Q: What sequence folds into this?
């Protein structure tokens, strides 16, 4: 946690979502699925993907069938953030081969094993920040400046970075 996976997804969304006929980003899949279960999870996904708020899903099979028939002709972008169980992906039941040509699915997870179990073709490992960038990020979040503003905070800032292994947002 704290590496910037979600932040990277947000940048990706801003840069490329306009290139797709259908776009859906479900931020914090784990929370939605955990609080509401697969039916609400699927409903939120369906509503966002098809840009409608008047959908009522009564069963997962019909929702999946309906969504596939509508999306098979569209170039789609799907971003699922904070996935922590393969079951969450299976319940959404979207397979890239059933989407329009040129469609992309991005799954963001802390657990690479989930991605492999689901059959993800390519995995991008988010690189850790170097020490200078980690310190700058900590200063921005803690002090609202790009640098340490008072010399007596310098030792504290370095201790925090050592403790968090260079991931200040993990705190």
A:
């Amino acid at each position: 946690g704290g590496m910037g996976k979600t932040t990277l997804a947000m940048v990706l969304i801003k840069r490329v979502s306009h290139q797709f006929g259908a776009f859906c980003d479900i931020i914090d899949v784990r929370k939605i699925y955990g609080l509401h279960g697969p039916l609400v999870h699927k409903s939120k996904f369906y509503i966002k993907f098809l840009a409608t708020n008047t959908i009522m899903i009564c069963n997962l099979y019909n929702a999946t069938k309906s969504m596939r028939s509508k999306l098979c002709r569209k170039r789609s972008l799907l971003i699922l953030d904070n996935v922590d169980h393969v079951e969450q992906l299976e319940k959404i039941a979207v397979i890239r081969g059933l989407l329009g040509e040129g469609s992309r699915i991005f799954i963001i997870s802390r657990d690479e094993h989930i991605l492999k179990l689901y059959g993800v073709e390519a995995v991008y490992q988010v690189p850790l920040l170097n020490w200078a960038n980690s310190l700058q990020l900590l200063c921005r979040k803690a002090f609202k400046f790009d640098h340490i503003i008072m010399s007596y905070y310098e030792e504290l800032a370095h201790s925090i970075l050592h403790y968090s292994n260079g991931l200040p947002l993990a705190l």
In short: The mean pLDDT is 77. The first helix runs from residue 5 to 16. Residues 31 and 121 are 25 Å apart (CA to CA).
